[in-house]
Design brief:
Layout (H helix, E strand, L loop, with lengths): L1 H26 L14 E3 L7 E3 L31 E7 L1 H4 L8 H9 L3 E5 L7 H12 L6 E6 L9 H7 L6 H11 L10 H16 L10 H6 L3 H10 L1 H21 L3 E5 L12 H12 L4 E4 L1 H9 L14 H17 L2 H5 L2
Parallel strand pairs: 3-4, 3-5, 5-6, 6-7
Antiparallel strand pairs: 1-2
């Protein structure tokens, strides 16, 4: 009996420790939000501008991510716009996709705030850079005849591509050690563990340690890892000082401006901050660079940094899932700010026509 009691006590202590660890990981936003990206969710495409896309009709093992027949993380949508409905196309990377929440990403929350007569469509694809975003708008999103386009912009958008996603797509071509690390990081976990942020943090750390233990292999580091290691500011400053990245940003915004001019559909650039030290944010000048590049091409900008700083002052944390992605509350804050800006611009009156 004593042995059984000790065993139960040890088991209870272990469960309590795991529960406290899970709570701490969620409360402090530790670890990358990787649970929503799985290898079966994306596929290669012959389109040279896009390179990869979401796989239509994909459903994750935990059923927290579902891709519709059009290759969108969205509810089923008709290609033809219903009579009396005005549409907003949201394009972007993992922020637009809604990583950080298993339900109610930005587009859904904005649609609920705008009410009947408006549809807000989600064309976000994790890892897309600004050029891929512009190509998505001119291609897949344009086919749905939107009345407004929202580019959900993250500061890493001038990167050539998302190295982690490229790693997933190319894992068969990589050295054995690197491929094994990527498989263990990105392959679906057991569905019962899918929602555990503690488990995902453990897998991410284990994969990183394994990769680092093989010095002959190229070091795999994305901006999430750099941020968590304390090098986020230097990383993003170097990105915006890189001539190739600035050229990529300019070319992407040029493409967005051309589409706006050709279609007459307004394009707004909605800038999300990096969720690190918001009270004394040090990357505001990079937000201004984005706004200036957009304004020079006739694109309207809405910077969400003040929205999240005000939420921080009001004690509304936690509103982010990790340093790059809002959580459900954070997407709601963004949706509320955009809905207010749209109403100020007359969207409500237009939607009622």
């Amino acid at each position: 009996m004593k042995t059984a009691a000790k065993t139960l006590l040890a088991l209870g202590t272990l469960l309590l420790a795991l529960g406290l660890g899970e709570a701490a990981v969620r409360a402090f936003g530790l670890g990358p939000d990787v649970y929503g990206i799985q290898r079966g969710m994306i596929r290669l495409t012959p389109d040279p501008e896009l390179r990869y896309e979401l796989a239509p009709n994909y459903v994750s093992p935990a059923r927290d991510v579902q891709i519709n027949v059009h290759g969108m993380r969205d509810a089923p949508r008709a290609l033809a716009k219903p009579p009396g409905v005005r549409r907003i196309a949201c394009v972007g990377d993992s922020v637009c996709f809604g990583m950080g929440t298993s339900q109610d990403p930005f587009n859904r929350q904005l649609e609920l705030r705008l009410g009947g007569g408006s549809e807000v469509l989600n064309f976000g694809v994790p890892g897309y850079h600004v050029g891929q975003v512009a190509a998505t708008l001119a291609g897949r999103a344009a086919a749905f005849a939107p009345d407004l386009a929202l580019v959900l912009y993250c500061l890493n958008d001038p990167q050539e591509t998302s190295r982690e996603l490229e790693g997933i797509l190319r894992w068969r071509e990589l050295p054995a050690g690197r491929a094994d690390a990527l498989r263990r990081l990105w392959n679906p976990a057991h569905p019962a563990l899918e929602r555990s942020r503690l488990w995902q943090l453990f897998r991410w750390r284990l994969a990183s340690w394994t990769a680092a233990a093989a010095p002959a292999l190229p070091r795999y580091r994305d901006d999430m890892e750099v941020i968590l290691a304390g090098g986020g500011e230097a990383h993003y400053r170097a990105l915006y000082e890189d001539p190739a990245a600035r050229a990529r940003l300019a070319a992407g915004f040029d493409a967005l401006a051309r589409w706006q001019a050709e279609t007459g559909v307004p394009v707004w650039v909605v800038v999300f901050p990096v969720f690190v030290e918001l009270a004394a944010y040090r990357l505001g000048d990079l937000h201004r660079i984005v706004a200036e590049e957009a304004a020079a091409r006739g694109l309207r900008t809405l910077d969400l940094l003040p929205v999240y700083q005000e939420a921080l002052r009001a004690g509304r944390e936690p509103f982010h899932a990790d340093p790059l992605h809002p959580n459900r509350t954070g997407y709601g804050l963004a949706a509320g700010a955009v809905a207010e800006a749209l109403r100020s611009a007359g969207w409500g009156a237009l939607a009622e026509r």
